[in-house]
Each structure stands twice: as C-alpha cells, then as structure tokens.
Amino acid sequence: MSKILDKLGIYDLVAVLLLGISISTFTILVLQLIYKIQIDTNLQVNETLLFFVLSYFLGLIFQEISSFIQKKSTHKNNRLLKAALKTSSNSHIYLTDIEKSGVYSYIIEKLNLNPDEDNDNVVYNYCKFYILENGDTTRIDKDQSISSMGRSLSLYFALLAFVVLINSFFQPSTVKIILVIISVCFAILLQYRCIRFAKLRYINIFRTFYYKVIVK
C-alpha cells in the first residue's frame, strides 16, 4: 500500500484519493447515525484495499463531474482568471500593477501579440507551461489540489442536502433538517474555498514567472 501511495502525485492523493475517503467516511456516518443502517467498519487487509480502491474511483467521479460544472460556470469565458488578475498595491495576495504589467509586456513582445486584444488566456498559458517545465510547482500543485478537493466536496454536500431534503418530506425529522442546513453551509464554505485557492494558483503562477524570469 505504501509503495502505491508513493507513486501517486499530490493531486491524486488530495483531490482524488483523500476526497473519495472523505466522501465514503461521511456517507457511512450519515447512514449509521441518521438512517440507522449498520455498516461493518472493522475492515480486514483485503477489505481495506478494496475500500481505498473504491474511494479512489468515487473521488475520481466527483472530481470529473465537479470539473465539468466548474468549466460551465466560474471558469466560463475566463471569469475566474480575470478576477484573479485584478491588481492591488495594498494586498500581499493580489498582483501589483508592476508585476502584472511586467509579465504582460514581456510575453506580448515575446509572442508578438496585439496589446489591444484580450491576451489573458495566452499570457496565462505561457506562464503556466514555463513554470511547469522550469520551476518548482509544489506550491501551485498544492493550491490546485486544495481547490479541486473543495470543489468536489462542495458538490457532494450540495447533493447530500438535496437527497436528505427530499427524503425528509416522506420521513420528517428534525435531525435531517439540521443535516440539510449543515450540508448547505459546508457546500457554500467549500465552494468559497475552491474559488479562493483557484485564484491563488493563478496569482502564484504569474508571480513566480515574474520573479523567476522578468526580475532575474
């Protein structure tokens, strides 16, 4: 098992495997505590391996579905990228005007782009692929993993709230209503976390490129 985990990257470990384990564990708790369905959690070696495999594929399913939804919503027309590219001289998170203009001027001249056109996506792709090929991507991979996990868990809790709410119409329960409220709160919180770390990833890619290429 340890050898298998060593071969997985940080994204697979956090955004897929850990996600699947979290979803599996929370679902088991809900079934046991809310719906009184008894599930044997004393897993043997073979059963533990099966649990990890099933959790991985469960995480993969939620990862792909949430990614598709994200592309049709927050990432459509580069909305999130444009929001991340807003500059601020009073924040250590957002890019400064000097950092942003330095990156754009360099890449526009390098690729002979029209400065009057919308070059956000081209500039971002140039920075991203340069960093992936030449830079330390540990921080960027971490931001992406946390963002992806938050996105998928947000979808899970939204679905959980919907399913439990529908069920509560047929079998009313105060506990179920509380679970719905908690799930909705988690869905909103995790979606906010997803967007925040997605923005940080964009910003860190631009900032890393600026200080590794422009300033250097």
What does this structure look like?
Mean pLDDT is 89; it is low at 1-7. It is built from eight helices and no strands. The protein is an all-alpha fold.
Kindly estimate the percentage of residues that lie in beta strands according to DSSP.
under 5%
Number of helices: 8
Task: Count every beta strand, where a strand is a DSSP E run of 2 or more residues.
Answer: 0
> What structural class should be given to the helix and strand makeup?
mainly alpha
Shape: elongated
The overall average pLDDT, rounded, is 89
Helix-strand pattern: HHHHHHHH
The CA-CA distance between the termini, in Å, is 43 Å
Radius of gyration: 21 Å
Low-confidence stretches are 1-7
Characterize the biggest β-sheet.
Answer: none
The percentage helix is over 70%
In short:
This protein has 216 residues and is mainly alpha-helical. The chain has helices at residues 2-7, 10-33, 45-72, 79-84, 97-111, 120-134, 138-170, 174-214. The chain is 78% helix and 0% strand.
List keywords for this structure.
216 residues; mainly alpha; 8 helices
